[in-house]
UniProtKB/TrEMBL annotation:
Name of the protein in question: Cobalt-precorrin 4 C11-methyltransferase
Pathway assigned in UniProt: Cofactor biosynthesis; adenosylcobalamin biosynthesis
Single GO MF annotation: precorrin-4 C11-methyltransferase activity
NCBIfam families membership: cobM_cbiF
Amino acid sequence: MAIGELKAGEVLFVGAGPGDPELITVKGLRALQQADVVVYAGSLVNPALLDECPQGCEVHDSAPLNLDQVLDILIAGCRANKKVVRLHTGDPALYGAIQEQMEALDVAGIGYAVIPGVTATFAAAASLKQELTLPGVSQTMTLTRLAGRTPVPEPEQLQRLAANGGTICLYLSVGMMDKLVADLLAGGIFTEQTPVAVVYRASWPDEKTVEGTLADIAEKVADAGITRQALILVGEVLNARSKGVPEKSKLYDPGFAHGYRK
Ligand code: SAH
C-alpha cells in the first residue's frame, strides 16, 4: 500500500529531510509542488524547498506560532477543501510534535497522512561516511536527547541508556555537552576513549563536523562555537574509519548463503 497521499481537505505531514533540499523524498517534493497551503517549521526547513510551492500557494512559517495558531491554519485550509502540507524537519515522527496535531485533526474530523523523511542521524552518518551498525561492535542504535524544557522519563535517563552501550545518537543536546559526557561515562560502558562525532547542520552549506573522544569532545565543541542544531553520535563504531572494521558482515560473506544468493 502506498502511504502519504496528498488529498484536498486533508493534511499531509511531510518530512523535509535534514537541510539539503534534494534530501526530501520524491513523494514529499511532489506534494509540495501541488500544495495550496504549506505550514513549515522555519528553524530547520530549508527555505529553498518553498520555491517548489506553486504560484498562489499560501505559505506560513510555524516558528512564531503556537499549536492553536498552527491548527487554525491547517483546519481552515482543509475546510476550504485545499491541499494542506505540514512540512517538518528531518522525519516528522522524531521530536516533531505531530501527534498532538493529528489528535486535534481527529477531533475536527479531518483526515491526514504522513510522508517520512531523512532524519538528522542519517544525514550525520552520511556526512561522516560512517556505518552505525557494525558486526562485533554495535547492532543497536539509541535515538535520544537530554532533558531540556521537555523532560525525559526516568527510565530513559542518558546514564541508564548508556549502560547498554551500542551507538547513541543525541538530538537537541549539544548545548549541554558537559552533562552529556558525564552521563555517558556514568553508564559504565563508555570510557574517556570512546569516540564521539558532532555534526552541526548536516547537509547544509555551513555544515561543521567535530570529532573527538568523551575526554575532549566538550572542549572541542565549545572551541568550534557549536551550541545548537547539531547531532551527536557516540560509540565504538566511529573508530572503524581510522582503525578498520573488526569483523566483516555475514551478508556478503562468500560462505554464507541466503534467500537471494545460493
Ligand atoms: N525531526 C527532526 C528532529 C527535530 S528536533 C529529525 O528527524 O531530524 C531538532 C534537532 O534535530 C536539532 O536540535 C538537532 O539536534 C537535530 N537536527 C535537525 N536537523 C539537523 C541537521 N541538519 N544537522 C544536525 N542536527 C540536526
